[in-house]
Amino acid sequence: MKLVFATHNQNKFKEVKLLLPSHIELMSLTDIGCTEDIPETAETIEGNAVLKTEFIRNHYGLDCFADDTGLEVSALNSEPGVHSARYAGENKNSEDNIDKLLKNLADKEDRSARFKTAIALSINIQSVLFLGTCDGTITRVRRGEKGFGYDSVFLPEGSKETFAEMNLQEKSKVGHRGKAMRQLIAYLTQG
Question: Catalytic site residue 68?
Answer without folding.
Answer: yes
